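I'll show an entry:

:::
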Amino acid sequence: MPAKFLGFIAFTVLLCAGANNSAFANTVVTVTDNSGQVVEDAVVYAEPAFPIGNSKPAPAVIEQKNKKFIPLVTVVQTGTLISFPNNDTVKHQAYSFSPAKTFELKLYSGKPSEPLLFDKAGTVTVGCNIHDQMLAYIHVVNTPFFAKTDARGNAILSGLPQGKYTLKVWHYQQATGSEPQAEEMKIGAESTPIAVHLKFKLR
């Protein structure tokens, strides 16, 4: 998708009941733009309207290689520890001024001694003080049900219990300060196709 695309995003959602337990479902979300082209690296997540058990999220890694952050977009649950290993032959100084997480990793190579805790929901833009072209985006969410669209524009939300949710989507090309788009969604025992059309402008 062009970097300066300005248009609308549409979501097609297909609910598929899990094969082993009909109380859970996998939700396939396909993201396309207003010309029908698929959108990669869109963050899709479902916030349940009911309490769920707490679990410790798995740690994440954002690599620095070939003077790039890899991956470009990362989505994690609040409370996740993220490491920023520098696998380049030059030093980097990763930082963020975002309200959801402000930090600065002083000029270094290799692996910093401690990962960083991301305990506040929101979007974190990461840069490098040495190489201005390096950018990464971290979207921190208050739910364990999240995914990122692949090259075909598909994201799979796995293991959703039955109940009501708010389905949300965010993309790094949204205008700064824009809220994720939201749509109510209900997961039932039956496998039921649901079409959800959301739209937001990208910068």
